[in-house]
Amino acid sequence: MVRTLPFILCCLMLHAALQAQQLNGSILNEQGDPVPFSTLYIHEIARGIAADNLGQFQTRLAPGTYTFEFRSLGYENLQKRITIDDHDQTIRVVMKETSYVLDEVEVFAGSEDPAYRIMRKAIAHAPYHRYQVKDYRSEAYIKGSLTIDKIPGLLRNAMKVNSSDVQIDELIGKPLVMESQNNIHFTSPATYQQDVVALKSSIPPEFNISEGLNIMTTSIYNSGMDGRISPLTPGSFRYYAFKLEDVAYQSDLIINKIKVTPRKRNPDLFSGYLYILENSWNVYIADLAASELGTTMHYRINYHQVKPAVYLPTTYDVTMTINTMGVKGSGKYYASLTYQSVEIDEAHRPGTQQEAEQREMPDSEELSPRQQKAATELEKLTQKEELTTREAYRMSKLMSRIVEPEVVKKQRESLEIKRIEKIKKEVDTLAWERDSLYWNRVRSLPLRVDEQQSYRRRDSLTGNDTITRERRERNELVLSIGGEDSGTLFGKITQGGKWEMGPKLSLRYGGVTGGLKEYNFVDGFWLGQTLSLQHEMDKHRIIRLTPSIYYATARKEWLWNVAASLSYAPMSLGRLHLSAGHISRDVNGMNGESRLMNTLAAIALGQNFIRLYDSRYLKADHSIDIANGLSLFTGAEIEKRQPLRNHTSFNIAGRKVPDNISSEAGLHPTHKAAKMMLQLTYTPRYRYYVREGGKQYASSRYPTFSLAYEKGFNLFADSEAPLYDKLSFSLSHTINLSPFETFDYQFTGGSFLSSARLHPHDLHYFRNNQMLFTPYEFNRSFNLLPPYTATGDWWMDGHLSMQSQYLFIKNLPFLQRYSFDEAIHLQGLITGERKLYLEGGYSIGFLGLSRAGIFTSFSDNKIRGVAVRISYPLWNVSEKPIR
User: Fold this and answer.
1) CA–CA separation, 416 vs 691, rounded Å?
2) DSSP calls for 788-844
3) What are the tens digits of pLDDT across the range 203-219?
4) pLDDT tens per residue, range 842-874
5) Number of domains, the chain
6) Is residue 113 assigned to a domain?
7) Is the pTM of this model over 0.85?
């Protein structure tokens, strides 16, 4: 009997499926025109269906009588009882335009729009609606389409389909389609298990829009929705303006139509409409749009009451338009959900929902003392008919304190950041093999003629209307751009590459093109190569050996370096580094200019911003976390230092080149040096991720403190050996004031406790961007200090930066369409030898890739200089200095 039970159940399910009848429908207005983007909801089975842009839909239902609710923006809701018999049916639904009532709402000049009262209530109740549902299971039919109308000629010529005779031009202007049937299991707070039962697509991977459509796994009640700022987030009045446009009375519902207008033109902000239900403060419809870099996303989300006082999304309708970098196109995305079960979180149902559900406050035993206190204050706020903005934000915070699940509270208090939002996706082994009969049974949107043709084009490449795993690999549009593949042997030799010498052993080679390391007037060209041998004991325990050898053409010497490093203790970030070599070093080794930038300036303009000396050295350093956020660094170095002179003056501009002497120091004698370093760095409550067993620090609300000690001592009985003791400290922090504003500061100071003998190499230098182009950020560096400004006494310096997307000129409406931000900078320095020096500046940043700024320096109450600087931090990625 046990063995036959599954068979009997399968037979019953098959019988029910066979008994289901097809219902086709079209939704029209009173003039007989289609009502695009309309939706319907079948109450008895909690099924939402999104009609297409022609107002057409289809579904399969078992015989019986159902209550249909038809809805579309600008039209009155229509409820209709429809009986399904044992035959397929076609229905025609006519909707009337909405007659809104706003007679009683008058907004006087200078008074607040009534929308703000509604939005305060909605924001205050958002945490409850976010965590109201503990668990649900649903079925989701998803259909997406993409049409590319234009591709630039260069890109078009580089694209081919399956290495076949099919040209990309044949796909221009023709829709590409994707459909899937899914089972979705949601568990609070934000875990989604998506089981893809069926999958069908003619969209190539390069164009697949599914990755950008995470709207189904986010909530408008969160502070962010689909990566943008939700209008229901606390603090939304800073980002949005609201206007009550209409009020509709439908059955026992009062629906407020609120226009949402971003106060700034920003890709992180929405515009459009929210339809809010009076008293319960649920979202009834979200009709929002956002644009970024020429791509506009328009979201239409319908919410229905799937259980008493529980409104969940039942349909998603997303429209995408593309007009960027010469590519033009459009896309559509529909999702229709059928809820099979919905479980409410009964343990956290706060008393503020009495207006909607007339229920009592939770028993005091169910709440912690902190929650009891919050509930009492919440009850007082609930009694208020009108809330101030501050009270609304406070109410939202109290609501969160009561209703948020325990896992969210623990996550917020824990140092380790664990991703609560989890999207698990599994594709059925037969998903790609479902035939047309299956799709006709589950499809809720009819295929248009051009969409059917899209599938036929795909099928012509596979020879069938189903796609196996192997065949699917052939049904792809492949982007291929000319050039030697670095994966080939010749490509690795010329461009560099990585050779796998075993499961855990690999060799990386810089390639012929990487044979030129740098150029300066002391050494000439560095010609040679760097190799890197890496052994991975596991993902985070890695040994690297990196030998380098270069020939200095002007100096006629071989320069070399051998470095070895060991990464271990991944949860403590342990790292041991050893190196030895003979190279030319910058006197300002810690805060000097980029040698790659200096190479370009030397060759092209005959300029040299680096002062070099000959270094033969051996050093070792080690760093490890001795507690979370507390890092210990120790190091030691012995070195033979020797002055250098220029050996060449070659430059394209033919200019006379400067001597290799620090501007504030004379030539120094050859000598041997030894020093040791000790540094403690501490960031309180430094939160972190664990990635594959290794710690990755993320952020902290507290500043970072650092204390460092350095000592120079005479190890070789050299009469010129440096002798000193230096103690320094620093305090730094980057504070995110809002999604659009950050404040960064750094204060450092220190003193040479003793300085019996100091050479230019041992002084304390300050980072100073001398060149027009620099790889360093403006936040923590000077720009107009004299070259190689240093001290052998005490010092204090500070850096303040305020960065905002809307600081000065970005507030002008016609500039808000452009992607840039603004920042103001203030730097200060005082030393034992120098009076107070100040710098002020203003800069503009472009997509986080570069910044351009103008700076002015002051000392002795006088303006000392003005300069323009351009920062391009990606140079740091290209430059790999020898350590």
Assistant:
1) 11
2) T-EESSEEEEEEEEEEESSSSGGGSGGGTTS--EEEEEEEEEEESSS--EEEEEEEE
3) 665 444 444 346 788 88
4) 999 998 889 999 999 999 889 999 999 999 887
5) 3
6) no
7) no
